[in-house]
Amino acid sequence: MNDAIKTSSTLHDVKYEIRGQLANHAVELERRGYEVISLNIGNPGLFGFRTPETMRLAMIENLGQAEPYCHQKGIFPAREAVVMQQQDRGIQGISAEEVFIGNGVSELIDLALRALLNSGDEVLVPSPDYPLWSAAVSLNDGTPKYYDCDPHNGFLPDADQIESLITDKTRAIVVINPNNPSGAVYNRAVLQQIVALAEKHRLVLLADEIYDQMVYDDAEFVPMATLVENTVCVTFSGLSKVYRACGYRVGWCVFSGDLDAAAEYIHGMELLAALRLCANVPGQWAVQTALGGFQSIKELVRPGGRLYQQRQTIIDRVAASPYLSMQKPMGAMYAFIKLDERFAERLDDRQFSQELLEDKHVLVAPGSSFNTPYSDHFRITTLPDRDMINTVFDRVDSLLEQHA
């Protein structure tokens, strides 16, 4: 009898429950004939949000040029379009040489951490976080250290607490703004405090800004790179969310700030990018049109727009429920919802999510899967239409009523 083949020990600390056991069980239920409402992933195309037609046409018209490998950093028109966007936001001193196009932001996060970390290095990551960040740190032999984004403080981080976590092993601070999963949008003062810490301790700032134009009401998105001068900032964004093109797998990262200090880091990124030859080329031809054209996301997030109205429906249903509460999401496409304290010790987020799937056929993501120290939240996407949202909350309230 052969011994079982064991996986790498680097996977021991890697979790991605958004597509984990619950999601797999949802697939099993669907195979058995049940209709499952899946709210675990922010995937606009599944809910009728189309990629702008101009982007599709740009990709189709350039398919003939998309057959060979391109430069490992990406095609020049795409990188130049990213530079133009950054310059329009007030970020100076960068060129296409500081831009990398990847197979989504996910690949670039992995490359950026692989190029930066040595064994045992620490990266400060928000809690709650998007769990890819924690996983990528661990996979690249680093250690994630969590700074709190307290629900009682609107999920905003505290600079003093962040600084208390900095050691001689700390290499970088991750900032996710607008935030996934909480929907928080960080104000200028909070970002300036984090930048001051990074510059004081010479830490790299890793700014995940994939939801940069997806903000609501009076929330203001402030690009992290506009505040950075004396350290290295790496900004991540892409086509997936704002441009509703998840399947294109096109993301980018931009180096800015102290580019002299970043020279070796950029060279390491280029080496890693070359090893995988290049990113998906057809989708890159949509970047210039996306960034330079009409920004249709603005219509979706303003009052009367579909994303705005669906978010408002969730806000209203949570407010009307005797079993739920929530910090109003000011950005992104998620709601991070808290179970009432009466369920403490009796129904944690994982049990709730399991029962909601088994009994009510609704798939959500347990809050603790976003690396929180508490287990009384769950995350849903705000993408479904209002009828589906109302159906979901009818089922949630029905389940919680049984436990109450």
Write the layout of secondary structure elements.
Layout: H1 21-31, E1 37-38, H2 53-61, H3 76-88, E2 99-102, H4 104-116, E3 122-127, H5 131-139, E4 143-150, E5 156-157, H6 159-164, E6 170-176, H7 188-201, E7 204-208, E8 232-238, E9 251-257, H8 259-275, H9 281-284, H10 287-292, H11 297-301, H12 306-320, E10 324-326, E11 334-339, H13 349-360, E12 362-363, E13 365-366, E14 377-381, H14 386-403
Parallel strand pairs: 1-12, 3-4, 3-6, 6-7, 7-8
Antiparallel strand pairs: 2-9, 4-5, 8-9, 10-11, 11-14, 13-14
Helix pairs in contact: 1-13, 4-5, 4-8, 12-14
Q: Can you walk through the features of this model?
A:
The chain folds into two domains: 9-50 and 299-403, Aspartate Aminotransferase, domain 1; 53-292, Aspartate Aminotransferase, domain 2, CATH 3.40.640.10. The protein has helices spanning 21-31, 53-61, 76-88, 104-116, 131-139, 159-164, 188-201, 259-275, 281-284, 287-292, 297-301, 306-320, 349-360, 386-403; strands spanning 37-38, 99-102, 122-127, 143-150, 156-157, 170-176, 204-208, 232-238, 251-257, 324-326, 334-339, 362-363, 365-366, 377-381. It is an alpha/beta fold. Helix 12 runs parallel beside helix 14 (386-403). The chain is globular and about 60 Å long. It is built from 14 helices and 14 strands. The strands form three sheets. The chain has an eight-stranded mixed beta sheet, sandwiched between helices. A four-stranded antiparallel beta sheet has the order 10-11-14-13. It is 38% helix and 16% strand. Strand 4 and strand 5 form a beta hairpin.
